[in-house]
């Protein structure tokens, strides 16, 4: 190798002056000289960034005919420059050479580095959007086995009340997230109202807002009946508009998992899923007690079916539908809520509507390819008491169990309502702002006076209608108090959260490199 | 306009016809400048005669070093095997359109596995002498209807260093023959006009063994694994890859979107399938097996090699499939990649998902329809019929048998 030979010659040269000199002083002088020269070369190399000595000895050792260090990069495809060109021929020759010669040259090129070689946040965001789009496309093409997905028709009975915004937003967000086309039929008891319309307008999915002329009654039992009528009304809309897709019943206080929407795509005509029942009791102690009681019952009976809060299809070992799991109401006998604002467990029906999904074509008029075990929907008489969707079928055994034969719980049933007479600001907008403000006892801001004037609850008996917020508390002792109360959130929350020191508001902007170092 | 409407019509037809198939993957039809030729069947379009050369040119080399079967130059060996049992082979040389000589010039490996090209010119020369003296077909055209597979770094220039390769140029005896090579760069001495560029050999079974389900979301934006500086041969940088790889490292080592490094993980193939863009920069030569891997794994190749000629360039519209970045634009690589519109990216992915695209890059054993062997034959078939001028009159000599360095004239 050429370089090792150079190294050798360097060493030889280094050794020879020291060996040949006999004089001690000249020897030491030479040694010092070499040392100084070596240090100088090291410093220059440090500055330049490469071994400078190689260049020097290249000059000294290489023959004149070998490559000159300052020659331009090797371009063998260009013809050697000719000096005897006539001026008017030059352009022609140049044009010829430029067309056949390559722009790419062999040789040492510079390493191009831009002045600020760090990520640009705008571009990082663009890249993330690209990644998101690509992943969405992947999901669409490969996700559900590539089958074309059907629209989801969600039927929601609702009515304007305190918790409507809470529940409806939950359902709305689930529907917005579902990666399918969604048609949302919202049936509102008491007629279509602006509050409901304003909530569902934010969804971005196609909505059909239907008014229902009856008002929602106060008992859970009656309520269930009205809800059934509302759902049938929605199904009639599906029939009239000939909506195509999978009909599911999204009661507005239920929770749906995303896998639920994926699973119901598999339904052929009529399917059933397992529903987790959250029989919520208004009273926490009662809830605990009932759980303890349930545990006792489990130990006594040691039967797994009695305490499963799941409603859905029951299958045998070969995954065929043989029956239904229904919610065991025994532990709650006599203790279930009757009125809306009862502090007791709200129990579901035997078979809740939300656990069933159906192909919308079942409801259509013409018997295209409808199976015979489906009743004609147009001839259904509502007044005969339709309890569960199984009444739509002639043969309930043809129901398809979904979610690996009911083993997966894909949605949860829950009923939580505020008191029937509870007031809330319309549209949950507090306008004009509340008049009563209570300063917190302890604040992180030092300029606020530490001792606020203490105001007790009973002093604030202001009933100014719309300006007041009422939130029914769970530990409400006074059942008689109907007067409006003002909650003091600041005090309570601040005591919990802001314990001690003021936080340092000047946060340092850490470079993104630190965060992403682990990636590489 | 008409192209787009016909493309969409074809796409619709494909969509409906493919709905009965098992995998309903949305792909797009590939048609390059030569048309929709990836699925052409070359059988019946040409006839190839395989010369019977002594085994010192092929089998003995392979016996000496079986590593030749697995390195990226193995295409020459597999092409021979394919032709021996292919229906395009004819045993009657008088009716053959093309003549193939089974030589393995790249099968002389160092202990570390790199091929030494120093004896290859002599081997070629000796083989051609044998062919021209034993059969009359070489002298009829001086090799114009013969083809040779030379998959080495710079093709038939037979050297791994670009300057030396350019100095040597293509072996003079091969000047009229068709060269099937992996190297391709426009206006370069080592790429003859009529050459067919092929992809380097990548082991198909190994790649198939590392496939992951296609619904695994692609979460890496840009992926690259390989050297940025060749510290053994070019410590200061600037020579290796014309400084392009070093520029990629220096500009994007801090960028979280770029998953680039030198260490080669065991999940290399899986990571490529989780990436949207895979960098394919030049090294000492402009081509690399990364292109094949990127195509097989559905990762859009970002080709950083000025004037490169990609495999089967007339059959595959590489401009629509990959992203080409000039070497001087490497510092702006992140801007270039993020400013590509999303529809273009999705279209490129659909083109890459086309199974005929992936097949065309592979050399499977045994050969399958549409694979690289068939694309080579398609390319040869497209060059037919031979122009009348290639046939020389009796006694006419065009090639200079004594040209080239003195060392090449020694017998092998």
From TrEMBL, chain A:
Residues 484-498 have a biased composition (Basic residues). It comes from the Eukaryota. Its EC number is 2.4.-.-. It is a single-pass type II membrane protein. GO terms for biological process: glucuronoxylan biosynthetic process; mucilage biosynthetic process involved in seed coat development; mucilage extrusion from seed coat; mucilage pectin biosynthetic process; plant-type secondary cell wall biogenesis; rhamnogalacturonan I biosynthetic process; shoot system development; xylem and phloem pattern formation. Its main location: Golgi. The chain crosses the membrane at residues 29-50. Residues 441-520 are annotated as: Disordered. Residues 503-512 have a biased composition (Polar residues). Involved in the synthesis of glucuronoxylan hemicellulose in secondary cell walls. This is Glycosyltransferases.
From TrEMBL, chain B:
It is a single-pass type II membrane protein. The keyword Transferase applies. InterPro entries: Exostosin (IPR004263), Exostosin_GT47 (IPR040911). Pfam families: Exostosin_GT47. Keywords: Glycosyltransferase, Golgi apparatus, Signal, Signal-anchor, Transferase, Transmembrane. Residues 45-340 form the Exostosin GT47 domain. One of its GO terms (cellular component) is Golgi membrane. It is found in: Golgi apparatus membrane. Residues 1-21 form the signal peptide. GO terms for molecular function: glycosyltransferase activity. One of its GO terms (biological process) is glucuronoxylan biosynthetic process. It comes from the Eukaryota. PANTHER family: EXOSTOSIN GT47 DOMAIN-CONTAINING PROTEIN, EXOSTOSIN HEPARAN SULFATE GLYCOSYLTRANSFERASE -RELATED. Belongs to the glycosyltransferase 47 family. This is Exostosin GT47 domain-containing protein. It comes from Brassica cretica (Mustard).
